[in-house]
Amino acid sequence: MVSLDRVSDLASITTEEDMKNDEELLQPLDRSIEEYAYWEQQIDAVQTLLVGKRIMNVHMLRKGIESIDKSIYNKLSYYERWAISIAKRCLESGILTQEDLNKKYGPPLHSTDEQLFHVGDKVRVHHENYATRWIKPHLRTPGYLYGKVGIIERCCGSYPNPEYFAYDNTDNTTVHHQPLYRVRFNQKYIWNHYEGNANDTIDVEIYQHWLMPASEPCAPTEKDEDEGCHKHDVDHQHKDHDHDHDHDHMHEARAIIEQTAVDREGTPLPAQHLSESLVSALIDKNIINREELRKQIETNQMAGVEQRGANIVVEAWLNPEFKKRLLKDGTNTIMEFLKLDKIKNDLVVVENTDKIHNLIVCTLCSCYPRQLLGIPPGWYKSRSYRVRAPRNPRSILKEFGTILPNDMKIQICDSTADLRYLVIPRRPENTENWSREQLLSIVTRDSMVGVCDITL
Questions:
Q1: 365 assigned to active site
Q2: What confidence tens digit (pLDDT) does each residue in 305-333 have?
Q3: DSSP string of 119-147?
């Protein structure tokens, strides 16, 4: 007998207890977010490009996703799971080494009580471009110290690393400790145009992984075109200089940019940094290039804009012979109609009638007719939709304002492998004399997934 824990679809591994107590499953679908963050669009496009280069396939993607521990899986967003799976495949295939990824992502998480520095040691703070596995700007090191040199004033002991707990906290059993130091800096060295005494200092608590011996230069990736680490030393007092760096303005501008990014994107997610690091590493290794990545993102976005699915629906409404062929052989009929050279997955077209209502879902991942409708909406990918649609479809339909007669049959189409489904929604009454353009204007993406009818 196969253990239920090994079944990978969400509908199976979700228990009745989960249905009663899981807050996500008890809440209505979140349909407020229609656009994906840029890093999510990048991961989506990278997967397509790697498939085209025969580095991976969709089955490998699924395998990697399904290998994520359930307790962690439920805490990750859809594209975070993709990023983890793609990263695993890139490492397993050898197209990226762990070192390649670490250059962008940062060194592995580790816990240590070993003190590398002692009182009186001269140390340099890493520059802001220092690769860490924690998401910026949430770093427990003030930006005004990046690249600066100070002296260890005190060894404070070993403490749990707060940067780790802020984002990578899926493992509650592991405590990542790092030695903490109080480092003393000369104020004249830190701030341009400092008006205080030349001997004034500032003490700052800094975790060990942010420090290196002052004798070591900054890594190339840590240098800033306006401010190299080599320009200053701990005893440098800006004597005999007539320069005006505008460093304070740089920090102010950087803070504004970072806050704007946070406000726009929302709270960074645990694997977002991994996603961005993965894309950067693949570009550095010439596995993909920026131009093909941009074009793929554009292609993904345009599929929905071109109204391919809507054109198919309207043609089926207007042309009974076309609809007959469409329902019998969706793939070839659509290829001919849209003048496509190829279709990535076979297409099955189903029709909503007065007796049958079709609803599309993919309980294993989120298979979707992308070539016809574009990137699937967030709610379609969500755990809640994929769990609830097969179990209680009427509750899902109700959230979209679709109330069906009790005697109407609901037919779930679970797209689990190589088929993609498109629903021909019922044509509204009183549209017999409408033009093609008028009909196109009322066909919605959601109606072609089956979560709603078309209403005028």
A1: yes
A2: 678 999 999 999 999 999 999 999 999 99
A3: TT-EEEEPPTT---SS-TT--SS-GGGTT
